[in-house]
Amino acid sequence: xxxxxxxxxxxxxxxxxxxxxxxxxxxxxxxxxxxxxxxxxxxxxxxxxxxxxxxxxxxxxxxxxxxxxxxxxxxxxxxxxxxxxxxxxxxxxxxxxxxxxxxxxxxxxxxxxxxxxxxxxxxxxxxxxxxxxxxxxxxxxxxxxxxxxxxxxxxxxxxxxxxxxxxxxxxxxxxxxxxxxxxxxxxxxxxxxxxxxxxxxxxxxxxxxxxxxxxxxxxxxxxxxxxxxxxxxxxxxxxxxxxxxxxxxxxxxxxxxxxxxxxxxxxxxxxxxxxxxxxxxxxxxxxxxxxxxxxxxxxxxxxxxxxxxxxxxxxxxxxxxxxxxxxxxxxxxxxxxxxxxxxxxxxxxxxxxxxxxxxxxxxxxxxxxxxxxxx
Length: 375
Known about the structure:
By secondary structure, the protein is mostly helical. It is about 80% helix and about 0% strand.
């Protein structure tokens, strides 16, 4: 029996799949560390390979889409992710773990490019603003992936069998959604183009937004434990609040955009996020700091989706090349931003680092609206 999905449902599923896949890896990390016998430093070095794989691929992903089409790239990279994930549970050495994670990063980078470009086509085909909601479903996929692995492993299922089960679910999701992915191509275009004009501006703004997101993930718990002496369980509530409001904000984002418009959303969102960073560092009470991180999540929720939509409307570069060029700059913010925050914290304090993020997000509020009004 062939299951037929609407274009909108299939696109949402195309965003759930990568979130489900990447988050399923997180609960597996302690098992892999213990199995190979890695210390924290060795594990950290191996984990860098995941981001390195994505960074290596993303600049050329647009050219690959132009030659193969979103559908083929989405299907191939999706099945590659499903094949690679189970290998992580059985790799016998740190070197092979790094190689496998690099391969996973390559596949995830290609998958991300294909689904974002298809989302732009879907917005155009349905004549609706949908990008925020699509990214919201990516966050839903992250919750489902981490939850599935945690439930399976918590129920006594062997890690290798648990991740294999997840891989099968990924293949089913890819198969169901791929038949609706656009097959539009631009085979005559170059493999890569240097970002320029509004595309370069969008990339820099995405860099700041991703930098802020990654810094909350990596540093919010340390801020809470350092300021308020919270234990590990409560120190993680800052990121929980951030992730919850970001997911909710993205699921509601398209409705908010239709009501208030891109410009107001791109001004108010970063301002709310900046205020959240300021609130988070106030040495008053830990619940107020958690509320501050919730504000950051709500404020940043729709910034990147709106900027990606702006890439789809600009005309100075082909969409496939523009999205990967801007996305590569933005993704670098996730990799380098938290590290930079750490260096600044070492020289000054973690509170100062978050206040610098507050300043940077106000710059997004100042310049992001310009990306929707000019080429």
